[in-house]
Structure formats: structure tokens, C-alpha cells
Amino acid sequence: MELTIADSVNPTPTAADITAALRATPFPDDWSLTLDDGNDVMLDAEYDPVGAFRVSLWDNGTRLHAAKDLDAASLSAMLQKFLAGDASWRDLSQWESAEEQKARGKAQAAARRADLAAAAASSTRPAAPGSAMASFASFAILAFGGYCVFKLATQGLGFITDSFPNAEAKLAVLSGGMGLTALLMTIGGYRRFSEARTWPSAVGKVLVSKVVRHEDSDTEGKRLHKPLIEFAYRVDGKDYRSQKLELSSTTAASQSWAKGITAKYPVGAAVEVRYNPADPGDAALENPVGILWLALGASVLCLAVSIYALHASG
After folding, report:
1. Are residues 148 and 214 in the same domain?
2. Are 151 and 83 contained in the same domain?
3. Residue that finishes a domain, picked among 41, 73, 93
4. How many domains would you assign to the chain?
5. For 173-208, how does the pLDDT look when each residue is reduced to its tens digit (9 = 90+)?
6. 68 and 144, same domain (yes or no)
7. How high is the mean pLDDT of the chain?
8. 78 within 8 A of 66, measured Cβ to Cβ
9. Domain range for residue 231?
10. Residue 110 lies inside a defined structural domain of this protein
11. How confident is the model at residue 2 (pLDDT cuts 50, 70, 90)?
12. Are 184 and 299 members of one domain?
């Protein structure tokens, strides 16, 4: 019996050696283990960044694959039985050939396409009142904004001062434009965040968790920091990596704030990843709907300033 871990070969492995090998975390991405009985039967295990192990069996020149990845405890139990000559190690997993594995993958892909088709079909149903209202509001804002731009392009600021002689026209235009833009962003964010609540989830693993200095953060002597969280996850047998902590862009703030976020997601931690079923690479750990209230507040403030600048009662 021979145990190989990466490039290190142990010709006389013991159960304790196997236990120690699987406890020596963290594992590098290229970590691998082979246990060979010397009679053309051996088990191969490769580490997956998500935190599981892909296991293969070589049996007299024929390669089989474990139908599901194993966790460290299950792999240890299998290797211990194999080392002890207990044939029941085979019962700890279902084994399939490369052809069977490919067929299963095609079946899963077909099922996934069917699910997406069903979801697309269901989307043809009448929109929920909230969604319909958001669409109408977006259209109304764009129409009003387009009308204002046309009037400003053809009449200049006289478009405002003709109706409001005492208006601070430039301030009204600037703050009004900013308010409408923020309102459109709020509506768009609301629709995306609402949709993301129904996204499926996958188990992921944190690979990187650190605080980084935000670029161009020396304004007025202030240094801003942001958390950098990189995580790995798997969808339908395909591995993905992402650094998207939030569906929106991650904000920058104080160093202590950023450290608080990284403490929430330490390296090696298992995390729930929400991913877009139409594009599994689009995924995040958090869906911070609270930011919408900030955008809405900014919009209301800007529009209030614009209305005040008209001096309609003056």
C-alpha cells in the first residue's frame, strides 16, 4: 500500500497518516491524494475550492468516478476501509464511467433548460402590481425627462423662467436632473433586487477575505477601505469564482467597518451564494435592499431642492 500526497510518497501509510493528511488545512487548489494497493486498484482524490473532494477509482486500468463529491469525513472513512482491505469501501459511493458521467451531466443540463423554459413561460403571466407600477413609473420619468431636455434644447432656461420668473433656473435643472436620475436608479435597483430574492442558491467557500484600501481615497486626508471577499461555488458541475459581495457595488468606508465585514466571512467559511439561473456567473453573497432607501432619499432631497429653486410662491 502506498500513499501519495502531492509529490510526497509514503510507502507504508497508516490510518493516522490518512487522518493527518485530511486535517492539514487549508488545502492548496492543486492538492491531490492517491492511495494505491499495489494490485492495480487505487483511489485518487482532488481538492475542490468549494470544500469537497472529487474522487476517482482506477480498477485494473478502468477509471470510474464518484457520482458525488465527498466531504473530508466521508473520504477519510473510504480511505481507511480501503487501507484496511475492507471491501465495503466501494459502498460508500456510487461509481460511474466517464460516459455515464457525461450522460448524467446532459440529463441535468436538459432538466435545467426545462426549468428555465418553464420560468420563461411563467414570466408571460400578467406582471405583479408592483412590477407593473415600477415599469409605468420608469416610463413616466423617462418621458418627462425627455420632454424637459427637448424644451431646454429649444428654449434654454427660458423654458423655466417664463413660467417661474423668480426661479433659480440652473439649480432647479441640476437638482431636478439628479433627482430623476436617482429615482430611475432606485426603481431599477428595486426590480433587480426583487428578482434576486427568487434566485437559487449554492453552497460556496470563502477563498480570500481581506481589507483593501479604496483607490482615490485620500480626498481631504480621508482614507477609505473596502472588504475584498472572493468565494468559489459550483453550479451544475461547473466551478465559478466571484468577488461580488453585494448585488450592487460594494461601498467603501472606514477600516474598522471593512474589518467587520471580513470577520463575517473568514477564509474557509461556507457561505450561501445566490446566483442568476440565466447566468450562474452572476452571483453575490448579499442582497442589500436597504441601499434602495438611501437612493430614494437622495432622489427626494434633490427633487425637493429643485421644487424650492422654482420659487413658485414668490
Report:
1. no
2. no
3. 93
4. 3
5. 898 889 888 887 777 767 767 777 778 888 899 999
6. no
7. 82
8. no
9. 201-286
10. no
11. very high
12. yes
43 in Cβ contact with 4 (< 8 Å): no
Strands (E), 164-287: 201-213, 225-235, 238-242, 270-276, 279-284
pTM over 0.70: no
What count of other Cβ atoms lies within 10 Å of the Cβ of residue 280? 20
On the question of a cis peptide bond just before residue 28, with omega within 30 degrees of 0, the verdict is: no
75 lies in a domain?
yes
| Chosen domain end from 93, 113, 144 | 93
Long-range pairs of 306-311 with CB within 8 A, sequence gap ≥ 24: 306/171, 306/172, 306/173, 306/175, 306/176, 306/179, 307/172, 309/167, 309/168, 309/169, 309/171, 309/172, 309/175, 310/160, 310/164, 310/167, 310/172, 311/164, 311/166, 311/167, 311/168
Query: Is 89:75 a contact under the CB 8 Å cutoff?
Result: no
- At 126, is the pLDDT very low, low, confident or very high (cuts 50, 70, 90)? very low
Cα–Cα dist 39/49, whole Å:
31
23 domain-assigned: yes
Beta strands in 165-237 (DSSP E): 201-213, 225-235
